[in-house]
Structure formats: structure tokens, C-alpha cells
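Hey,

The postdoc asked me to send both predictions to you directly instead of through the lab channel. I've kept everything plain text so nothing gets mangled by the mail client. Protein one:
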Amino acid sequence: MTGKVEFYRHQLGDGEAQSWRRVLDTLVDAGVARSRSDALAWCVRLTGEHADAWLAELRDALRRVEEVRSQGPAGSGE
């Protein structure tokens, strides 16, 4: 188990990993899931169900950012 913990600490950092554990623990405490493992599966399932809509919103937001940038002042590299 220690190997997995060290891997996640390396990937996320201690603070970020702690934050995710709090999310999972909250889902367990609220009765949404029976364990952290179940809570993680719930999060993955939820993300999968909404991924297309969330990605579409993200693409729309990026398009709006590009529109605003194109209307802004020219860069100083001219």
C-alpha cells in the first residue's frame, strides 16, 4: 500500500491528495458511498456521465477567450 500512497503523493502533492481525501470522506459521511473506494467510483461515474457536456462548455469558454484576445490590443512584439 505504501507504494501507491507514495505514487499519489508524487503525482498530486500532499496538499492536493489531502484535499481529495476530504472530498471522498465527505461523500462517505453523507452516505453517498460506503467507503473511499466507492466514493472514488461514484466520482468517476459522475465525471463520465457529464464529460461531454463539461468538455463542450470548456471548448465554448476557450472560444470566447480567443475572441476577446483577438479584439484586444496587439502584442508588444511588433
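Protein two:
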Amino acid sequence: MTVASPVPQAVPAVPAIPVREVLPWAVFAGVLALLVLYFVGAEQGALSLFSGTGIHEFVHDGRHLLGFPCH
């Protein structure tokens, strides 16, 4: 009886992603996340940029879902 030896397979190399290509997207995602966090968590009362309750009512359910008190 003969035993077949496994054939070595080449593993494809993972390409390196330069930080200069990722950094602008990471900064954009960070700024966007902070903007969303502001509108969900703080767009009300003394820190309000817009008058009225339009923004508050738009993000009201998300505010409760994320645990921000608003009443």
C-alpha cells in the first residue's frame, strides 16, 4: 500500500495597506461618529445648535435605545 504525500499549496500573501490611504477614512469616520453622538446625546437644552425640537424628536427613539435620558 502506498501513502500519498500532501502537495504543498502556496498561501497567497496579504497585501499591506498603507496608513496614508486609511488615515483620511478613519478621520472621516471618527468625525461622523462624533457628529452622530452629538445629535443623539446632546442636541437639546443649553448645548443646542438648532432651535426647536425637530432634531430631538427625530432622534428620540435612538436616544432611548442608546440609554440617553431625555425626559
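Summary for protein two, as requested: Helices lie at 19-41, 54-58, 60-65.

Thanks,
C.
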